[in-house]
Inverse folding.
């Protein structure tokens, strides 16, 4: 039995992104349905541990490209290697991350084949994968298929598929492969930590603030801040501090609406919505967010939405499971306190 | 610097998008320059202002996409080119990247190609990297800051916005760069710019014009476009005499629902 269902394992700083295990789970079920096996591809430096983990999560075979040159992700190098390894695959599955979206696209060019990103579900149609993916930021969905060319390449939207449980007694084979090193033209000179703290993409809980965070009438900016815009920013910082306390209590990532980002309250890395991050957490808490269509498009697939907003007619309540029509400056700190007591923090 | 900025016309992000018989429509909402491409145009203009040279806005699309190119011209691009060919109606990303790469080769002597990180319609976010691969140039995607650019030394250094933070990368020119929001604040077109743009003739290139004798067959087809099932959510409003009472009830409900 050839192991024709390939899955690419994305990792950063020695840690595998949970979305990669979701991809292994999908590869496993696809392989079982198509009577094939799962080949995981692990590229990096000192990543043998990740190769072994891939077997525990469901791979039958791992192609391990371990080389100092692969220490930092660089698209030209990783794409060249992956294209070489996956040329005979039937399906190549990747998680969708800030590395793998382009990686999958470049491999598709190398192998002259089709690629569908952000896949949220799929069915098998003959020997092809008929994949469903969002367009217009999820306002619509489309089914896409690559009928003739192989491999078919899909990247899975993070958290759209369950993460399998690792089984330590699973067996599989790790094969070390030569990395195809063409001309290396880029150089990674360093990293800076994320402005967003916890990554929005794979967060189970997200607490977001909107334009409303700067509207606390009870606050008076310090005398030395006289500029009106600076006063507004100061107010927003006090508001986001409350949102951050709630996020930290829940171990959540902090998000924001476009209105809050455009007003200069918080860096773009936090933006949820059509021109920001499209997210799908278990719990999304929207504080002072009215629910513009662009924002709703980016978070509507959250499993549960809680809305806290002064205006009980705001569109956000139409998507919410629980709503509080009230002042976020009163409710959010009280909620943080109530949760701290109940969660023993 | 000879800069090409690839742009697309899309519906406005505020549009309510619907589909009937496989045809997508967006009501009275205007078609606009893809919001992410505005950052790419702005960055191209800033580079041109700092290093001289010229900026060409390039688009593949229907004739109506002229309007998006006119906006790019009004912002300050020197020229615009529309690729329009009936043979490209069902183009998938693989075909689009082939066409754009051929057009960039035809423009010739290009130092830098800029893209927005994706388009707000099909949202694949792979066109820039795919074009780079076709041209065999390095791609620097998701760029939040171009920290240095040396046209003589033929190098570019950028900060890329990854989920985990920023990655600092240096590479050679020519290169393909895709930019994210936050890299700049796009300018509004000036009155003079709008006037100039409205008078300019935008050339239309066919696939034959860019040397593609044969348009490749798309690898992907999309047999069905549909609206997501509306999730009926009954919003349970949490009420109480004091914020503390409301908060306590909400916290209890969240714990009952096992989401925290």
């Amino acid at each position: 039995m050839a192991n024709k269902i390939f899955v690419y394992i994305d990792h950063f700083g020695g840690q595998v992104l949970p979305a990669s295990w979701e991809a292994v789970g999908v590869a496993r079920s696809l392989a079982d349905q198509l009577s094939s096996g799962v080949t995981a591809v692990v590229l990096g430096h000192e990543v043998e541990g990740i190769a072994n983990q891939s077997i525990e999560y469901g791979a039958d075979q791992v192609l391990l490209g371990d080389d100092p040159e692969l220490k930092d992700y660089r698209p030209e190098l990783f794409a060249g290697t992956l294209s070489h390894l996956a040329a005979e695959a039937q399906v190549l599955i990747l998680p969708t991350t800030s590395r793998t979206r382009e990686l999958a696209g470049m491999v598709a060019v190398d192998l002259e084949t089709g690629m569908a990103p952000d896949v949220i579900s799929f069915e098998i149609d003959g020997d092809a994968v008929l994949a469903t993916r969002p367009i217009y930021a999820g306002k619509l969905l489309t089914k896409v298929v690559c009928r003739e060319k192989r491999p078919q390449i899909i990247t899975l939207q993070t958290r759209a598929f369950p993460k399998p449980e690792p089984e330590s007694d699973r067996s599989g084979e790790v094969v070390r492969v030569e990395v195809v090193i063409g001309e290396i033209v880029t150089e990674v000179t360093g990293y800076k930590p994320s402005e967003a703290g916890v990554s929005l993409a794979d967060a189970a809980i997200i607490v977001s603030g909107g334009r409303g965070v700067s509207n606390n009438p009870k606050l008076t900016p310090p005398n030395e801040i006289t500029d009106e815009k600076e006063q507004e920013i100061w107010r927003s910082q006090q508001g986001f501090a409350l949102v951050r306390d709630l996020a930290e209590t829940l171990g959540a990532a902090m998000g924001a609406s476009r209105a809050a980002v455009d007003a200069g309250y918080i860096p773009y890395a936090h933006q949820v919505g059509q021109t920001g991050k499209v997210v799908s957490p278990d719990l999304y808490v929207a504080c002072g967010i009215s629910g513009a269509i662009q924002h709703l498009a980016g978070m509507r697939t959250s499993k549960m939405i809680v809305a806290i907003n002064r205006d009980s007619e705001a569109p956000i309540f139409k998507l919410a499971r629980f709503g509080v029509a009230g002042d976020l400056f009163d409710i959010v700190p009280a909620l943080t306190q109530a949760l701290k007591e109940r969660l023993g923090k | 610097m000879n800069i090409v900025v690839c742009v697309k016309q899309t519906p406005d992000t505020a549009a309510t998008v619907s589909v009937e018989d496989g045809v997508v429509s967006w009501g009275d909402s205007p078609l606009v320059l893809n919001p992410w491409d505005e950052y790419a145009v702005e960055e191209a203009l800033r580079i041109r202002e700092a290093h001289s040279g010229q900026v060409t806005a390039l688009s593949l699309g229907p004739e109506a996409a002229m309007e998006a190119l006119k906006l790019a011209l009004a912002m300050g691009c020197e020229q615009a080119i529309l690729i329009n060919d009936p043979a490209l109606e069902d183009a998938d990303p693989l075909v689009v990247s082939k066409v754009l790469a051929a057009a960039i080769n035809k423009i010739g002597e290009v130092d830098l190609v800029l893209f927005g990180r994706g388009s707000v319609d099909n949202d694949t976010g792979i066109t820039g990297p795919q074009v780079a691969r076709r041209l065999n140039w390095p791609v620097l995607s998701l760029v939040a800051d171009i920290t240095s650019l040396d046209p003589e030394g033929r190098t570019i250094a950028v900060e890329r916005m990854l989920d985990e933070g920023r990655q600092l990368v240096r590479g050679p020119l020519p290169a393909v760069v895709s930019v994210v929001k936050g890299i700049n604040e796009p300018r509004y077109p000036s009155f003079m710019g709008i006037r100039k743009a409205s008078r300019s003739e935008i050339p239309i290139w066919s696939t034959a014009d860019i040397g593609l004798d044969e348009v490749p067959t798309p690898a992907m087809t999309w047999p069905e476009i549909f609206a997501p099932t509306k999730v009926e959510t009954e919003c349970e409003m949490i009420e109480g005499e004091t914020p503390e009472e409301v908060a306590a009830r909400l916290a209890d409900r969240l714990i009952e629902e096992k989401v925290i």
User: Anything to note?
Assistant: Chain B touches chain A through 85 residues (CB under 8 Å).
